[in-house]
Amino acid sequence: MRRLTDDINDAQRADELQATCERLQRQLAKAKAKTGDLVEAVERAARDAAVIVGKPARIPRPKNQRGKRDPEVAVIHFTDWQIGKRNDSFNTEIAVERIRTVVRKVRRITEVQRSDHPVKRCVCLFGGDHVEGNGIFPGQTHEVDSTSYQQLFVASRTMVEVVLSLLEDFDVVDVYAVPGNHGRVGRRGDEARETNLDNIAYTIAQDSLANQDRVTWHEHGHWFQHFTIGAYRAVLVHGDQIKGFGGTPVFALARKATAWSSGVLPAFDDLFVGHYHQNIVITLPNGGLVRMTPSIESGSQYASEFMAAKGRPGQRLQFIHPGRGITTGEYMIWLDD
Hints:
Blueprint: H1 4-31, H2 35-53, E1 72-78, H3 92-113, E2 119-126, H4 148-167, E3 172-177, H5 197-208, E4 215-217, E5 224-229, E6 232-237, H6 250-264, E7 270-273, E8 280-283, E9 289-292, H7 301-306, E10 314-321, E11 326-334
Helix pairs in contact: 1-2, 2-5, 3-4, 4-5
């Protein structure tokens, strides 16, 4: 039963949030077209709001590890949520529910995997374009259901929810994140690539999870992330670094990945990319793989009109044997069934 003090505390939090929103609106009005000031205002208001809402309770360590064979590690590639995008079969509400579906399926599949192998660690990859934005292309404002500011908070809250849910099933969760192109603030070239709404969402989520001692959120902001799982090595990028028009640039992707693997980036076995909303696996000359993960979005008019492609919504899960440095199981979690 709720107490009077609970109602009072809720009312105080609501008043504080309202004051934060009003202050942000005043700052944005003063900042006008100064992109740097806009970013600073959004970041400050986001942090203030996160402090007011508070941190979630610490999740107890799970007691469900089974399997007698070698341990494995789960890797989940979340990318291209496009939160805020709206079409006949997709909107923010559908996006959040599809992300929850991914997590539920990950937990069920992992339980099956544990019949042979204990899976105590999860590597969570956030690959960018988690917000749709409002000004990446002309006319975009007619295809969204919320402002960039609203998208930012939905994305960060959903990231927190994802990690907390994974903590219920895994001993430890490692998070690696890169920004996409849709989170860009201002016109292309106005700000550094790292000035990105995805990065702000990551920071809010990281701050919210600071009391979860079983979560390691690795430093983010750069355009790529290199990570290892025992002998397994991988690189995460968004994918907009590979240019193409009229379809998914498979040849350009293979060429760029091969160049990166020649010593430009730290050595890797797998390259994780998104951006093009397609499920594609490419084998490189050195035996490495490029794993492209689709978006959770469905019904993209842009994909149909300009890329002549119909992306099927899904996200990628695989299991890694740390000692051998190989993938032992791979699943595409489809979201249109």
